[in-house]
Automatic annotation (TrEMBL):
It comes from the Eukaryota. The lineage of its organism: Eukaryota, Viridiplantae, Streptophyta, Embryophyta, Tracheophyta. This is ATP synthase CF0 B subunit. F(1)F(0) ATP synthase produces ATP from ADP in the presence of a proton or sodium gradient. F-type ATPases consist of two structural domains, F(1) containing the extramembraneous catalytic core and F(0) containing the membrane proton channel, linked together by a central stalk and a peripheral stalk. During catalysis, ATP synthesis in the catalytic domain of F(1) is coupled via a rotary mechanism of the central stalk subunits to proton translocation. It comes from Eustegia minuta. CDD domains: ATP-synt_Fo_b (cd06503). It is a single-pass membrane protein. Keywords: ATP synthesis, CF(0), Coiled coil, Hydrogen ion transport, Ion transport, Membrane, Plastid, Transmembrane, Transmembrane helix, Transport. It is found in: Membrane. InterPro entries: ATP_synth_b/b'su_bac/chlpt. Its main location: membrane. GO terms for biological process: proton motive force-driven ATP synthesis.
Length: 184
């Protein structure tokens, strides 16, 4: 500051400083004006500028501190998300393995059930065939018996005459009579 006041005081020693008027030398007047303005700014603005710079420094430090805290929180959340992802992947693998084993088990159950059903159908088919064969055999036996009976009756009818018929009836009546006596 002393330099500024010295320069202002030394103005009185200049040859043109003795009289009042316009100085047309632009370079010398601008230099003086600039030095006065800069000196005043430095003297009065030093505190304000210092406060502004301190405030700016504190805001920058706070921003850095907040950024570090946010970064730490983000890293923590990222680790949690990675842990959840690993857990979900393991659970998905477990479901996948269980799903495949469940599908295989159900497939085997279906195959076994189908095999049992086919075996039952085969048994029903064999029983039905056996039943139909037995029925056919019984029908053939019945027809053969009926034909044999008709043939025997035909032979008896052709061989029997009235006299033989009457003798047979008498013999049978005699047998029934003797049976009656035995039971009485």
């Amino acid at each position: 500051m002393k330099n500024v006041t010295d320069s202002v005081v030394s103005l009185g020693h200049w040859p043109s400083a003795g009289s009042f008027g316009f100085n047309t030398d632009i370079f010398s007047t601008n230099l003086i004006n600039l030095s006065v303005v800069v000196g005043i700014l430095i003297f009065f603005g030093k505190g304000v500028l210092s406060d502004l710079l301190d405030n700016r420094k504190q805001r920058i430090l706070n921003t850095i501190r907040n950024s570090e805290e946010l970064r730490g929180g983000a890293i923590e959340q990222l680790e949690k998300a990675r842990a959840r992802l690993r857990k979900v992947e393991m659970e998905a693998d477990r479901y996948r393995v269980n799903g495949y084993s469940e599908i295989e088990r159900e497939k085997l159950e279906l195959i076994n059930s189908t095999s049992k059903t086919l075996e039952q159908f085969e048994n029903y088919k064999n029983e039905t065939i056996q039943f139909e064969q037995q029925r056919a055999i019984n029908q053939v036996r019945q027809r053969v018996f009926q034909q044999a009976l008709r043939g025997a009756l035909g032979t008896l009818n052709s061989c029997l005459n009235n006299e033989l018929h009457l003798r047979t009836i008498s013999a049978n009546i005699g047998m029934f009579g003797s049976m009656k006596e035995i039971t009485d």
